[in-house]
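pls read this stuff:
=====
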Amino acid sequence: MERWICTICQYVYDPALGDPDRGIAPGTSFEALPDDWCCPLCGAGKDVFEME
């Protein structure tokens, strides 16, 4: 699975890790994240992330 990086704060979403603090299980692809998911560091939406 591809990792995605926030173009604002450089947070990296790694599907292998998920986002357990927000209930996203490991193995969840970026495309499968809810539309309202946002960067845990800066709060930016999915639209500012780019494939790393």
Strands lie at 4-6, 12-13, 49-51. The mean pLDDT is 97. The CA atoms of residues 28 and 49 lie 16 Å apart.
